[in-house]
Amino acid sequence: HLVTHTSGLPRVGDLDYFSRADQPVTEAELLAALDGVRLEFAPGTRTRYSNLAGALAGLAAGRVAGRPYRDLVTEDVLAPLQMTGTVWDPEAVADGRLATGYGTDDDQPGHHWRMGAAEAMGGLYAPLEEIARYTAFQMDAWPARDGEQSPVAQRSSVRESHLIAGHASPLGQTFGIGWAVVQDETLGHLVFHTGATYQYACSVFILPRLGLGVVAMTNTGAPD
Fold it and tell me: If you average pLDDT over every residue of the chain, what do you get?
C-alpha cells in the first residue's frame, strides 16, 4: 500500500521536510509525523499520492535490508548502473555540475531540502545523462524475453512495477509500484513520475511498448 499510494495516509501530514535548510529530518521526526494520523480511506480502496508513505516505505526497506536506505540505493541500484555522479547531498555534487536553482515566486534561489530519513520520497542530485541511463534501464524490461539480466532487478520485476497495482482508478490514472500509470487513448500504456523541490524539478515519461522515454529537468520547481 505504501509504494502503490493506496495506504490512506495523507500527502504529507505533519512531516516538515520543506523548511529544512540545515538539519536533515531524523527517523524520530518521521515516525512522530504518524502520531494521531487518521487514514483518509481504507487501505486498498482508493489511490492518493502520499510523500509520507514513500518516506515510510524507504525506512521499511532499509530495516529489512539491515542498512540505511541511502546505502541500499547507492550500493544496489546506483553502483550497478554506474550512476557515480548521482549523490544525496549538494556538497557531494562534482565541482561545476550543480545547477543554480531558483524559487518560483521571486526568482530568488531557494534552499536545498534536507530530507534525511525521509529521502526515499526523493532527494537525489543526478545529472541528465544518468537519469537517462536509469530510464533506459526501466525501458529495457520491455518486451519480455530471455537473456542476460541486470544485477539491479529482473526484467519481470521491473515490468511489474509498470503495471497497475492495488487499486484501479476509474478516472484513468492509477499507480504501479513507484510509478504513475495511465492508459492513454492516444499514447497507450504510459508510465511516469514527476517531482519538484524549491529549486529543481524532474519528470520521466516512458511509453514502454513503444520503446520511447522522455526526461525533462529544470532548475526551478513548484512543489505542492
Answer: 91
